[in-house]
Amino acid sequence: MGPAKRLVATFCLAFLPALAANLKLYLKDGSFHVVREYEVQEDRVRFYSIERSEWEEMPLDLVDLVRTKNEAADRQAALEKEASVLTAEDEAERAQREEVARVPIEPGVYLVEGKELKSIKQAEAKAVTDKGRSILRVLSPIPIVAGKTTVEIDGESSAMIIASPQPEFYFRLARAERFVLLKLKYKKGVRIVQTWQIMPVTNEILEEQEIIPTLNRQLDPDLYKIWPTEPLKPGEYAVVEYSAGERNIQIWDFTCRPAGKP
Q: Which H/E stretch holds residue 104?
């Protein structure tokens, strides 16, 4: 909520009675006077006229009290509803600011465990071709070689074990890139994150990967909260940040192993 909306919310809460006091005193002929307040005195209605800034009177049988009271009640209810909505928005914005503040400023992936956050270690990825293996680095990607390349992590299982089948993560990006949750494939001694098909001549790179559907909530320009839409099956996974077709990738891997399962 911006400063203007917060000002309106404060105004509504602090001055609601005063706002509601300015109302229309309807007459039976359909016309009305804008008044600050009015009172019924036997056969007359005494009211303070906003237009003339003075007290006036008129016969009671000229005044449509039912319409006057109903509109005043409707207006009061509308003001209270608006103030309630604006207050709820302000509280939600404050809660989001507090949520953002609890996440470390360092780029990375943080697992939510109750009220605590656990940093997930970034994995070292390798690009493997039939000609050898090269360590992938974000700022100095490997040379392009036409053909098939697999992006791999050493080891058949991650040291980071998560028991919840629907884990939640905060992901603070290092730069504006795509991010996904991937299911990793097994291969003897390694886990495959992506397979690159590098086209000859054009050097176009097509990524092949198993994406797990997630829900993402942006909290700040570089901060997201993400979680899978469905419970994860036991296995190897990774939160991945990369730019499509640019041979750069950052990986935060974990094993999903619900409690009690080997």
A: none
What pairs with residue 81 in β-bridges?
A: none
CATH-assigned architecture of domain 3-101:
Roll (2.30)
Give the CA distances from residue 257 to residues 2, 83, 102, in Å, rounded to whole numbers and listed in that order: 44, 47, 27
pLDDT at 8 over 60: no
Residue range 173-188, pLDDT digits in tens:
988 888 999 999 988 8
**Separation of alpha carbons 62 and 120, rounded Å:** 76
Residue ranges of domains in the chain: 3-101, 108-256
Q: Which residues contact 212 (CB under 8 A, 6 or more apart)?
A: 180, 181, 182, 183, 228, 232, 237
222-262 pLDDT, tens digit each: 999 999 999 999 999 999 998 877 777 899 999 999 875 55
Q: Which of 35-39, 81-85, 94-98, 134-138 has the highest mean pLDDT?
A: 35-39
Strands 44-49 and 54-59, bridge-based pairing: antiparallel
Question: Residue 57's beta-bridge partner residues?
Answer: 46
Residue 103 phi/psi, 5-degree rounding, is -90, 130
